[in-house]
Write a structure and sequence with these properties.
The chain is mainly alpha-helical. It contains nine helices and three strands; from the N terminus they run H-H-H-E-E-E-H-H-H-H-H-H.
Length: 219
Amino acid sequence: MPVVLSQDELTRLFAAMHGATGLMAKLTYGGGLRSSECLRLRVKDIDFDRGCLIVRSGRGNKDRMTLFPERLHEDIRRHLEFAKALHAKDRRAGAPGVQMPGALDKKYLNAGKQWEWFWVFPSRKLPVDPRSGLIRRHHQHVTCVRRAIKRALKKAGIARHANAHSLRQSFATHLLEAGYDIGTVQELLGHSSVETTMIYTHVAVKNQLGVKSPLDTMK
């Protein structure tokens, strides 16, 4: 069964995090992202005006649109200033552009050097790209945010077997508890089958029937 954190637990978790990993955790929860989807976000995938994120080549190699929480807009804008400084540093150093999806490296030779294709969460170092052997900027590694969340869970005193994926599971469950229909939640999560999304209906605390435990009705 999914591990769903309460909003109180999430508040404590996020308070125990800071910097880029804190932003990743909030964005993962706020947009219902997989950790890998969050890390692969590019500047062009963030739409401030429409308040949405574009997840490209998600599971099943499908693109989808999901939520970009308004309360993160200013934090992300400030973070992008840091990312833009790294982008400018790479351009001054003549470093190769970032890796492009699919065969776009061959179709658009210089697109990887353009700001809009740069990673939202770039690594601080220039590692060797194992595919091409080039030394160029990659996005942060998935273990970075996973370790940060693990430390924050301990610091926040949350004794649950939770992890980075629990943020996505919490997103889905909280939307269902708020009364959003399962089709909408399925679309935001990028599930190909509604049966996959249905699992979250089994862990939702609230339900439309208003059923209460008989213990709660005792006088």
